């Protein structure tokens, strides 16, 4: 098992404690936390507490009490509890919890957040008696471990870490190896028989202590290290010989003295005292205060300080380190799964310099420790009732648990683990449902490149994985080409700079879509996600010559006959054909979970589908209706686009009506197909929505063609196209505004719906159309169009002499004005469907197509937690949704409420919609299982 | 006095009763109300009443009572009251009121709305006893007038009109001359000695009765009339000889018989009965129901029916007709002002076929009637306490008042009338303030072309009057040209297809702006309104050749040396130089009104100004601060734009900072100028707002120039320009998003503000800057930028070793999300300024630049009452404003609230803002007096 495999399932690079340690000193810091000592300059007072911070459980912290200041965790005693996060900080509470269930955690103690508050209320002085308490706990620690702080032969070394109730950048970094000094380092060298290890640990301590505690700029240390490396001709840190490290410690102490004005403290207790105070000071550093302000974190007293014994896996052949999962995180199988390295530190496992051994081989190496570890495994699963991801170190035959947390897992594993844990009676059905990250279900539904397939594959470039899946095909450079070659039986990848609605047919026919611009919410991405079609966007290194039919990347040029593969999850663009794994059938555990989900869900799950094929696929995935059937896609196919363009070019109403009349039979046929596919379930048809300029050609050749067809000069076509241009098409002439200015389009569409319905009913098909009027902003607008719709329905039925079937007429709520006046709007609407894409655009003032230039900065700077187009902004956009639900139902008690924006497939958003009382969510076919599970989770929230 | 003069002041075409009559029968109807008889088919039930309709005063109408069904108005008795609008309808209540104050109104009676309701509850039958009551009132009428219904020698003729409490299209049209039949017409001919008049009246009755009451399609009558005209070679109706009209009556009766299936009713009571029932039926016609639905009109029982005696001014030389104002509507002078025509009908006065005589000459013609009219004048002013606009008819020496209403007047007249009426003790100060339409004050402030100046002027074309005023100048075709020639002392009109921010300097230097595209909210219009500069936009007939320096219109081509004039009120583009009238100084009555206004206003009035000149002008108009100082305009002037473009082209932060550094001294100087001009008053500076692409050149020549200056290839400039392109720039990378991605711009601007402030304070100038961060959507965004702003302020002050002056930091509320989360936002803001332009764009989903294609249809169809960019949409956008005020003040009690969108100068909007508790409004300098008056009106509302 190669080192990379273990960490593969979650695709996150894991930073272990040891790795952090390495990073803390080796990597140059570009942006770093302000130094604790400088932080002391900050004079800003604590803001008055108002409400408990987000994520903070338990009662609100009150004024600091003058009671117990330090809580011990260890074999001897464990004074803290998992629930005391507010008092002990997140890290402290966690260490106490692990200890209390009998895990062999390196012992230590936590100084409470109240003590930090007292530090400030008592004039920035360590509270009286604190150091005595600390000394007492150190003594317990020494006794428990049989080591002694400052003892040359058997030294106790500790780490000091900050830890508030909420994790917070800007707080003090970790200080490791505390307790070393000029003498102890020698003892350590001797005790371990590893002089290099000892001096490496010491130079790290001086550096960290100087930098983090005393505010000496890191680059002063860096400069010394560079000099040593030059001296020994060492390319990297690890090439420096032991003597070099000894020289380095000497140089570091000089740097320390020069910048701090006194010697590096040799007294371990002094080191500890200064470190504790530095942690307290960092609580009111500029960056921490700013972070709390910006993130509205209130109600916290201060930070806790964690002092913990160090444990080393590199002390000889009776030492080692490893990582493991209590079950297989990739498949979910109930086996102990992991790997270890003898005489190594944590980072060695991840770094891959040495090949770790499978965890089962520990039985050969140290059977007792392995047995102990297996027991830990069982304890953990019983305690946390979930699969755990653990890190451990064996120091001289003694096992230490460094960390345990719920293990990340693939969607497949999540399903299996959940179902099996129910069988094992570890958890109940509801817990099982809650446990599975709903979004991960897509992994079970889409083909993907498996790790073993991608070995030896050439990755040409990497874009943004916009729609998961795996696709391999020959390159097609225009939509028309893709359509033609796909019809001829070729598997083609459509490669474009960006896509537009004109490309839709070609996109549909291609096996995958690759663009060089755009983000996750670009046209290509959104359309592809809707179809569950593999798509990579924003691969900026691609350069395309559409006319020549070539694409250049990484210095190589590809033509129409070249085959590439794209991974819609990772965004990788690969050379040649890569084997794909097609998902298994959706039976077994997956079916069990879906069954449980439907049993517990309150909201129904519909799908967004515009074609019978999509509708059928969504039914297979369990959709119970269509929540959004867009009609514009229907306008692009085949000969229809010609009639649409004639309609747009029409110089008067008569011309327009005759063009529209040509569309009627097509539309009717479309609806017959969809109603048939959704037999027995409702189908919400949205009337024409996009601005008309999306239907006209923007390239000269196509404009000429259109001019010829329409029998008008090309200048006329160009004039009309120019006239249709808008500065902000998103806020322009579209949606129901089209129906206001061209009512004949609405009449044709409604007629097609009614005629299709009557046709279906005659055939014994239970067609249940609902007519949805988009982009409504005012009650009058809706009332007037509803009137016209109702009259058209009545007219068609009267023509045929049949009783009008019940066809609810409703609207989308996607304009902020519609949300705030939902009570008025509801008077004219039998249902609302929230169009949260547009609602987000307008509520935030964010154009989906343009956020690429600033949204990344917002995420990086923490001004937004996530892209509001991916997951609904509950505080802002969500507030409007909730308001519209309440007002709408006030005006019309039985108002049906749904959502059809892309948020309808996002689990967090679905949970929110559940809390608003929505009747259903609607999402793309491939998200239906996700939504079913999320709906169940919402019902249990 | 030419006929047109009297109606000139208000520029509205006045439709008198007589004109309406003429229109009702002569003009072909393009869209017409559905016929009352067809309306009977409508089966839709009345919606349950919920709330009284808009505009309906008094208690809600309850179920129909079985009491009195008919209310008489006349000399004998007057049973109705002005307040009984709900029972008698608007028209009925008005007729009763006029009668009750002793005006000689043609007598008649009103059948109540309750009776209409009973008509429906009693199965669509006229309630029992109604016709008896009607007959009784007809008898009173006959007695009062000494005429008799159906009497050949002295016939009583009446009109029948519908009249609900709210005026409502779709209700039954008027039927006039009711009472005529084959015999009575002959008697009328003899009695009047005017056979033509009698048969003309009769053919109108048959037509109207057939069409409106019995549902015979108008075109059947039209066809007959055409045949008669052909027969007599008559070009128009009036050319048909008397005998032709007699033949026409015969033919009309045939048409009636053929389509109705029975003879035209000869019995006047039968005519009346059918007409009354037709009015009732029209209440539930499709169009009326649809109108009530769309306009949310509820709480009405039905329509009233008004039956009123006819009065004719064309019965000989002792008859006549006239229109008059109780004071001069143009100047406000307290003189009786009007004109009359002997032996004429009302439409003759307006039509201008004969020249009317001044009203004073009535004294010569009929001294007694004139004396009576003067008494009416005085009665009216005492009763209505306002200047009245009256219509009267003299029938055989007897005066009849046909209408009185508050007279429209010019702004000048409004001010004078109000001030003088206070002096006359007719009204008090508050009433005077309420009385003046605040918006009309602009008429006193801007130069204009007076009627007498425009006689003989050639109007080349008409665009949209976007910014009032009058301007004459030579044509300049580019902004650069305008700047250059204006510097050389020329008066130039800038003529452009459309303008962009690059043109701002040229626009400023021109005396007026004329564009061939765009609407009232286009860039040109908005900028011009801000400066009070005359501007005409959307003059679509203009065709410009910018390179050649020519403009073609109406077949003529004009060059750089040609002089044109534009009227920013009417939109007229005129040949040559037209004399302008410059307004008088703002003293006298105007000053009195302003003084009174300030005494009663609660809200302060600030101005939107970007330059010291604008600031000074606004101070003269009474502004007490700047509510919006845009900084982007400052970026366009002179050499600055170069630095701005360098900043945009910068490839890294260093380059960018060095370009920005060049801007600092300019910005500082700008602020010193503005703070000095506003000495002692607050100045709210908005940080950079527009998207960066507005600053880069889009034409090749300019791009090359920039490339040379910046020392980069032109391809790089093009690349960057293309990169800055956005699909929806309105929702793109602008506002505070610029500060998030380029914090160095914010830092420079804040530094400039602080340095300018400190400089001013040193000079003894009381600079009071407020820093406003635009386009904020989230609390975190604002908190983070506020942080940076505060730190920069502290830094600059620390550098100089001075105590930081108090500089409030606030934000614009212009994004819906900011409004709904205003409580959170307020935590980081010391003030809110509502940017209602953008807030309207996003709340409605309307792009100001693109509404031209659909907004007109919305207004025409009654889906919107008015352009929401002109006057705030109180129900939707206003709801967000109100919510933000409440939430904002909940979070921060002393939060200062203002508005700086263009709505800040709109009286109706100002009234609304007053009700929300805003502290100030801010508007363009020229709107300041308007806003001061509107603020007073708001306080009294």
Features:
homodimer; 941 residues; alpha/beta; eight-stranded mixed beta sheet; eight-stranded parallel barrel; 38 helices; 31 strands; elongated
Structure in words:
The structure is a homodimer of 941-residue chains. By secondary structure, chain A is α/β, with parallel strands linked by helices. Chain A is 44% helix and 15% strand. Chain A contains 38 helices and 31 strands. In chain A, the strands form six sheets. The first copy, chain A, has an eight-stranded mixed β-sheet. In chain A, strands 24-25-26-27-28-29-30-31 form an eight-stranded parallel barrel, surrounded by five helices. In chain A, helix 24 (612-620) runs parallel beside helix 26 and helix 30 (743-762) crosses helix 31. The longest helix of chain A has 25 residues, at 653-677. Chain A starts with a helix and ends with a helix. The model of chain A is unreliable at 1-64 (pLDDT under 50). Chains A and B meet through helix 12, helix 29, helix 31, helix 32 and helix 34 of A and helix 12, helix 29, helix 31, helix 32 and helix 34 of B.
């Amino acid at each position: 098992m190669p080192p990379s495999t273990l960490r593969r399932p979650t695709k996150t690079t894991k930073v272990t404690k040891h790795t952090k340690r390495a990073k803390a000193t080796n990597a140059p810091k570009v942006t770093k936390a302000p130094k604790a000592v400088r932080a002391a300059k900050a004079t800003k007072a604590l803001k008055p507490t108002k409400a408990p911070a987000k994520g903070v459980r338990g009662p609100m912290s009150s004024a600091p009490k003058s009671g117990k200041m330090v809580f011990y965790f260890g074999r001897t005693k464990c004074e803290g509890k998992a629930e005391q996060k507010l008092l002990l900080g997140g890290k402290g509470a966690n260490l106490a919890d692990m200890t209390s269930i009998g895990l062999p955690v390196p012992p230590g103690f936590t100084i409470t957040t109240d003590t930090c508050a007292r530090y400030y209320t008592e004039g920035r002085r360590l509270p009286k008696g604190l150091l005595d308490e600390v000394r007492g706990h150190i003594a317990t620690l020494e006794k428990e471990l049989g080591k002694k702080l400052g003892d040359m032969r058997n030294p106790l070394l500790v780490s000091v870490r900050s830890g508030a109730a909420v994790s917070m950048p800007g707080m003090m970094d970790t200080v490791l190896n505390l307790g070393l000094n000029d003498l102890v380092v020698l003892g350590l060298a001797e005790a371990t028989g590893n002089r290099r290890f000892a001096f490496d640990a010491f130079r790290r301590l001086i550096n960290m202590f100087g930098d983090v505690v005393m505010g000496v700029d890191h680059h002063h240390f860096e400069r010394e290290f560079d000099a040593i490396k030059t001296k020994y001709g060492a390319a990297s840190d690890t090439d420096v010989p032991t003597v070099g490290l000894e020289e380095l410690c000497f140089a570091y102490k000089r740097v320390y003295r020069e910048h701090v004005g006194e010697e590096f403290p040799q007294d371990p207790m002094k080191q500890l005292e200064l470190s504790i105070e530095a942690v307290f000071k960092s609580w009111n550093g500029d960056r921490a205060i700013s972070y709390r302000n910006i993130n509205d974190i209130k109600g916290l007293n201060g930070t806790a300080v964690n002092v913990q014994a160090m444990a080393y896996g590199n002390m000889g052949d009776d030492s080692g380190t490893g990582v493991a999962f209590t079950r297989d995180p990739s498949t979910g199988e109930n086996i102990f799964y992991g790997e270890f390295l003898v005489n190594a530190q944590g980072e060695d496992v991840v770094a891959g310099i040495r090949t770790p051994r499978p965890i089962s081989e520990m039985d050969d190496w140290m059977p007792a420790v392995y047995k102990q570890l297996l027991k830990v495994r069982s304890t953990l699963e019983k305690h946390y009732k979930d699969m755990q991801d653990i890190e451990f170190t064996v120091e001289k035959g003694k096992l230490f648990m460094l960390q345990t947390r719920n293990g990340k897992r693939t969607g497949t594993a999540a399903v299996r683990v959940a179902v099996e844990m129910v069988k094992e009676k570890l958890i109940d059905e509801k817990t099982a449902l809650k446990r599975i990250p709903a979004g991960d279900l897509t992994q079970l539904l889409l083909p993907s490149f498996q790790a073993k397939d991608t070995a030896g594959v050439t990755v040409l470039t990497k874009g943004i994985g916009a729609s998961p899946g795996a696709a391999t095909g020959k390159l097609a450079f225009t939509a028309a080409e893709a359509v033609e070659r796909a019809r001829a039986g070729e598997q083609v990848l459509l490669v474009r700079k960006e896509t537009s609605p004109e490309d839709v047919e070609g996109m549909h026919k291609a096996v995958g879509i690759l663009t060089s611009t755009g983000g996750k919410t670009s046209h290509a991405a959104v359309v592809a996600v809707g179809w569950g079609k593999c798509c990579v966007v924003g691969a900026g290194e691609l350069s395309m010559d559409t006319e020549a039919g070539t694409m250049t990347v990484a210095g190589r040029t590809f033509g129409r006959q070249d085959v590439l593969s794209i991974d819609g999850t990772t965004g990788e663009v690969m050379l040649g054909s890569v084997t794909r794994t097609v998902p298994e059938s959706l039976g077994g555990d997956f079916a069990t979970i879906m069954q449980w989900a439907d049993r517990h869900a309150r909201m129904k799950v519909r799908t967004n589908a515009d074609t019978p094929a999509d509708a059928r696929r969504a039914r297979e995935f369990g959709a119970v209706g269509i929540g959004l059937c867009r009609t514009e896609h229907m306008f692009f196919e085949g000969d229809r686009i010609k009639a649409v363009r004639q309609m747009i070019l029409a110089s008067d109403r008569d011309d327009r009506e005759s063009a529209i009349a040509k569309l009627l039979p097509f539309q009717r046929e479309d609806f017959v197909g969809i109603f048939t596919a959704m037999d027995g379930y409702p189908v919400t048809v949205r009337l024409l929505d996009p601005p008309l300029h999306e239907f006209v050609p923007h390239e000269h050749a196509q404009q000429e063609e259109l001019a010829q067809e329409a029998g008008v000069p090309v200048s006329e076509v160009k004039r009309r196209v120019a006239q249709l241009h808008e500065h902000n098409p998103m806020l322009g002439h579209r949606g129901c505004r089209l129906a206001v200015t061209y009512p004949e389009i609405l009449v044709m569409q409604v007629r097609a719906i009614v005629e299709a319905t009557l046709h279906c009913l005659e055939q014994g098909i239970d067609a249940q159309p609902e007519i949805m009027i988009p982009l409504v902003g005012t009650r009058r607008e809706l009332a007037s169009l509803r009137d016209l719709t109702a009259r058209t329905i009545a007219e068609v039925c009267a023509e045929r002499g049949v009783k009008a079937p019940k066809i609810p007429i409703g609207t989308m709520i996607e304009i902020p004005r519609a949300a705030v006046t939902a009570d008025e709007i509801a008077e004219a609407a039998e249902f609302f469907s929230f169009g949260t894409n547009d609602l987000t655009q307008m509520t935030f003032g964010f154009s989906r197509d343009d956020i690429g230039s600033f949204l990344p900065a917002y995420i990086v700077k923490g001004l937004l937690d996530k892209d509001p187009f991916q997951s609904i902004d509950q505080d802002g956009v969500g507030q409007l949704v909730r308001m519209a639900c309440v007002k709408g139902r006030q005006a019309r008690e039985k108002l049906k409420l749904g959502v059809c924006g892309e948020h309808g497939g996002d689990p967090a958003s679905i949970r929110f919609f559940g809390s608003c009382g929505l009747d259903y969510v609607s999402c793309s076919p491939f998200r239906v299982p996700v939504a079913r599970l999320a709906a169940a989770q919402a019902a249990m929230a």
